[in-house]
Amino acid sequence: MRPLKLVPDNVNIDWLRWRNVATVFSIAMVVASIAFLVVRGLNFGIDFVGGQVVRATFAQPVQIDELRGRIDALGYGESTIQEFGGGNEVAIRLAVPEGGEDAASRSATEIRSAVEDNYPGARVDSVEAVSGKVSGELFQKGAMALGFAMIAITIYIWFRFEWQFGLGALLALAQDMVVTLGFFAATQLEFNLNTIAALLTIIGYSLNDKIVIFDRVRENLRKYRKMEIVELLNLSINETLARTVMTSLTLIVALTALVLLGPDVIFGFSLAMLLGIVVGTYSSMFVGNGVLIQFKVGPESFMKKETGPAGAERVGTRELP
Predict the structure, then answer these.
(1) Helix (H) or strand (E) holding 93
(2) Which of 18, 84, 246, 284 could disulfide-link to 209, CB 3.0 to 4.6 Å?
(3) In angstroms, what CA-CA distances link 289 with 5, 85, 176?
């Protein structure tokens, strides 16, 4: 039985034919993401802002305004209620009441009673509480984790590749992060520690994908000394396309299953990962390679000119459709 090949041998696609369209599309995504971050901001979970979250499931869809009125009447401040799951599941968020653990326990008990007494068949699934001090420490450590990851990547790329490759990889990674954050701002999905973990995972995957392509680009720059850079980049993308498709497709299938069928507690993580994989694969092909074209990278950019016995350079050509 012959093995399944998603990418045929000797594939020859002119990917960078669409580089100008991809540039406009990338700029539009980044600008829109920044606009959402500025205008709407991120919907930080209690991991980062502190507070108390009660998750409840109702027998049928509930009127949010009515439920908010009942919760606010308990006297623990203004509540924020968000639907999730199948529409009959809600998350009730409140500030942590003053008085320590006893007050938090008392408020949780009263909220449970308000839900179960006024809505037959309703149940409270979980109660979570994080103090403001703990949430501040979590936010600081999460931001530091992302910052250190980007610094470590910068140092690695600086030594691993020439600066043009490093700049291309960093700009592509920055786009991946900004677009993912912009998506969370646009949808107002909860941004918590699970999302930070997803962003760190996206950085690792996306960087690995770019390094594979850049390694092939550098090999081909040595091999085909007079090939035009656009043609050479297309060749490099096509030569690594089978690996890119298999890796990305496997992850996309698994993450799509988690988004559609997985538990709600990892919904944000799974969705962030799914978006990051798609955007990261796109940026590996167009953003990083686009930077190399803009800086007119070629063999002469970072290696000495090699000649054969008769003084003739190695020449490679490859026709594209």
Answers:
(1) strand 89-94
(2) 284
(3) 26, 40, 15
Phi and psi of 27, rounded to 5°? -60, -40
| Domain count along the chain | 2
Boundaries of domain holding 207: 15-43+135-301
Question: What is the Cα gyration radius of the chain?
Answer: 26
Chain centre distance of CA 54: 27
Give Cα separations from 112 to 96, 124, 222 (angstroms).
Answer: 16, 6, 68
In a domain, 206, yes or no: yes
H/E element, 270: helix 267-294
Give average pLDDT by consecutive 10-residue segment, the chain, 321 residues. 65 86 93 94 78 81 83 79 74 72 75 84 78 64 78 75 80 90 90 85 85 87 84 89 87 91 82 92 87 78 52 46 46
